[in-house]
Write a structure and sequence with these properties.
Largest sheet: 8 strands, mixed
Structural class: alpha+beta
Shape: globular
CATH class: Alpha Beta
CATH topology: Aminopeptidase
Length: 176
Amino acid sequence: MEKKLNEVIVLGTERLYLTELTTSDSDAAFMLELTNMAEWIQFIGDRNIRNLGDSKAYIKSRIQASYKEFGFGFYKVCLKTNGTPIGICGIVKRPTLQNVDIGYGFLTRYTGKGYAYEASKATLDYAMNDLKIKKIVAITSENNQKSQRLLEKLGLNQIDKIEEKEYGVSLLFSTQ
């Protein structure tokens, strides 16, 4: 799979490029797989995406809505070598948090290869340097040790433990 001509590349790294998600069948199929992984459901939550229609609706109402309202959101992370989508990464403004939040999720078969760090580091740099966002936070499950280590590697520090209706008990990390 190669980069499609109509894809808008937002960021690039040595091995990856990040592009906006669309409601195409291929992006919907990718998000359907990603959001139904056991790890996603355990650590991020069940988004009730059960078919391509649900996936397209989720992309439109949650992800593309963020692009339109804030000018940023979650982006599809693809391998530069062949355009294969491997995860999502981006920044969002959640109504439950005062600050912009960085988040990510990767297909299990692509974890442990440094892709999450590479995409998250580029996203964090983009948010702080290009978008001039001074403080960025992140939330993660208190049971998600991998995510906590990644956030610390990115330079975020745990500042609080919070209870959120949608996510339950989470650890709050911050760049400041």
